[in-house]
């Protein structure tokens, strides 16, 4: 009787160790794997202590139930909070990008009419760089503006081909000395309330 119990007990330990190794290989490295290792470790300890627990007639299920319930609830709450924060950050990032893009569109609309009439020019491409997307609110947060202009003719429908928003440093190198109309740069700087030296302009190549 005792021999059968011991052989069954050893067999349970061996099977459980093999199962633990398989689970460890299958699960990817994540919080779930860490939690699985914790659970497997606790169960292995209980299996090893099974003879002692049987002598004292300890209810194993009653013993481990509060532990697993607390651990499960804690991990579940942490996972839900983590996912909620991720979704919140994603939504805030999308909203901020939309706000900045609208600001760029408004900058273009602000100068469009006068640029067409007084300088016979139109914005073909407009790109704006900001210090930090999370805190950018006004044109004071702009670090660089890249404007590509083209001649404007009355009656033609002019559109901006592309509006871009960049954060931080840029690899662009546009030399304003090659742009032959400093008056336009000064006009744009005045309307956008920025320093003229952060505006980099060029004519569209035909």
From TrEMBL:
Keywords: Membrane, Transmembrane, Transmembrane helix. It holds the Pfam family Spore_III_AF. InterPro entries: Spore_III_AF (IPR014245). The chain crosses the membrane at residues 6-26, 38-56. The keyword Membrane applies. This is Stage III sporulation protein AF.
């Amino acid at each position: 009787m005792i021999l059968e119990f011991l052989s069954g007990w050893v067999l349970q330990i061996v099977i459980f160790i093999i199962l633990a190794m398989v689970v460890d290989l299958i699960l990817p490295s994540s919080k779930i794997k860490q939690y699985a290792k914790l659970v497997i470790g606790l169960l292995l300890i209980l299996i090893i202590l099974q003879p002692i627990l049987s002598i004292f007639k300890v209810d194993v299920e009653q013993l481990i139930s509060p532990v697993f319930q607390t651990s499960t609830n804690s991990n579940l709450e942490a996972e839900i909070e983590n996912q909620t924060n991720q979704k919140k950050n994603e939504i805030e990032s999308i909203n901020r990008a939309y706000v900045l893009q609208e600001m760029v569109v408004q900058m273009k609309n602000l100068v469009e009419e006068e640029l067409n009439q007084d300088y016979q020019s139109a914005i073909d491409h407009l790109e704006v760089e900001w210090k930090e997307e999370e805190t950018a609110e006004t044109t004071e947060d702009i670090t660089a503006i890249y404007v590509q202009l083209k001649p404007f003719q009355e009656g033609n429908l002019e559109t901006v081909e592309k509006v871009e928003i960049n954060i931080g440093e840029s690899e662009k190198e546009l030399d304003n000395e090659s742009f032959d109309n400093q008056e336009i740069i000064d006009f744009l700087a005045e309307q956008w309330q920025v320093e003229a030296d952060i505006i980099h302009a060029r004519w569209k190549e035909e």
